[in-house]
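Here is an idea for our session: we take a single protein and study its fold together. To get us started, please write out a protein record for me. Start from the sequence, derive the backbone structure tokens from it, and show both lines together. Go ahead whenever you are ready, and we will take it from there:
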Amino acid sequence: MKMNRKIIGIASGIVVVALAGGGSIVAYQQSVKKQVNSATTELKQALKKQDYHQLMTLFNKQSIEAAGFTKETAETKYQTIFDALNVSGIEVTEVKQEKQSKDNYKVSYKVSMMTSMGEIKDEAYQTNLIKTDDGWTFDWSPSLIFAEMSGNDKVMINEETASRGKLLDRNGVELATEHDYQQVGVIPDKLGEGTERKSNIKAISEAFDLSVDTIESFLAPDWATGEVFVPLKTLAKNLSEEALSNLPKGVMISSKEMRYYPLGEASAQLLGYTGKATAEDIEKNPELTADMIIGKSGLEASLDEKLRGHNGGTVQIEDEEGEVKRVILANDKQDGEDITLTIDSKAQQIAFDSLNNQPGSAVVNEPSTGELLVLASSPSFDPNQMTVGISAEDYDKYQTNKDLPFIERYATSYAPGSTFKTLTAMIALDANKLTPEDSLSIDGLKWQKDDSWGNYYVTRVKEASPVNLETALVNSDNIFFAQKTLEMGEKTFRTGLEKFDFNESLKLPIAVPKASISNEDSFNSDILLADTGYGQGELLIPPVTQLSMYSPLMNEGTLVYPQLVKGQEKTPDKKEVVSKESANIVLNDLVGVVANSDGYAHELFQPNKTIAAKTGTAEIKDKQDTTGKENSFLLFMDKDDKQFMGLVLSEDSRKNGTAVSKTRTLLDYLVEHY
């Protein structure tokens, strides 16, 4: 438990409101009322804005001095008290004005404010607004800081800081926790004077990547003198023993507890990172206060309310003898909750490493539950560097990286390519437009329906004829699936696809765009219909959604939705999206993609485990007969035991390698442990 005990004095101030004389009694009364309203409004606005300088101009000098203050010292006391409480979101309500005499109005109001220890609600205040030679001014007394304060009373703050909850993997391994970071600081007296001081500061600048001006700015405050420790920088990675033994003169290493992510880059987009609440954060969420540590991105942000907890403690008024006159606020601290994810940290690390810092992603789940074992995206960023305070230069490197390390590729929309043929096959089987025995005679590597397609052709990689469903899946035959999709027709095909919840949101604590079939409600052309059948066209599906859509293959026709937080309510399974028979036919046919010696994923063959798979390539280009960028996909499944299934994406695979080439190590781990 962390406790900070602060003793804070009282504050005071003055207001001047000019009274313009009127000709008639009515005009005079209206003028007075207008000025009273104006003064009250100024008081309200100054409190809401926490503009204590303006506030103190609204009180008369006599009352401030009677309380033993000047405007300046009273303003400082306000600032000190409210800063210590981290006050934000001040609301002034129930403002009332009661005329006591022609030159005196009693003004009452209530104030609610958020502090780092909780809300102070409906604090009642009362003062007099009096006409003086200088205009209309309020009387000030200590009770206008907090009710019932008087004389030399003190505000005592005992704060207990809540611990942020941990993020754990499915086995209890810490994914986000607290860690003692090394903090670099200097002892001003040990820097020396003149030339020696300049030389030492330059050495510190070079050793810790801080500009000389930055170091001087930390040394500028009046308190930063003598033997005091002046912090300069918190380090994302601890210094080696050798570095510690060769510190520049004047440097001292301390420690600071902050958020830590053991997997580093491997889970950065998923977990996100924490930081201090900004004015913009507080505007969005009035419960926050300045400098409060909150989640800034990823699960740290979406689960922030549970993880953050609530600080506790007491705020009370004590008299000069230390006797408690009034308890303003008393809350027990509530530590944040530990949250267990479905993620397997070892699988997550292996998947990320296998992507080789090249653009891509990996998603793995348990088919029967939808529990996500892996959500990896590459390239990535160092969340620990973000937590301790990243330099503008390092942040700019991330921002300008053409491979976009901040994006979550597992939750970014892509054309799915040939992995999508598994859905087309199941829909066609259910619609009785296809049987396992059906075969098509296909000649050559390109085909078009008729001359109306002009120069447009559907192409395939392997020449084979006749072609049945198994051959088409193993060889990934675009022409076969284009022809079968056209035979089904748009109505049958689209009706089948809609069962897979296109244009629906996944119930996950991460943002995932909705999957879409086409830009319009209709394909509007046979070419687009045919292209969609083999996973191109205008299809856009995030990898995590793709894996969910393929789950009927492993669940006898039932679609199982993904889950990321253990115990969190998930969308109920959707039964009979396709028939059990159709799902099993396609699953069995996919075994050859790995088992056959000429299968596209044969390099993933496991001697003691039957793996079914479907490769896919989605080409992105402006027009046919040109070379475009290719994205490579691999869907792989534990056919016999049904303990795992996964989808790996490798962007620009001609340059970066196929998804198959980035899956072996991950698959070996899953086979051994699931």
Remarks:
- The CA atoms of residues 70 and 629 lie 72 Å apart.
- The first strand starts at residue 3 and ends at 8.
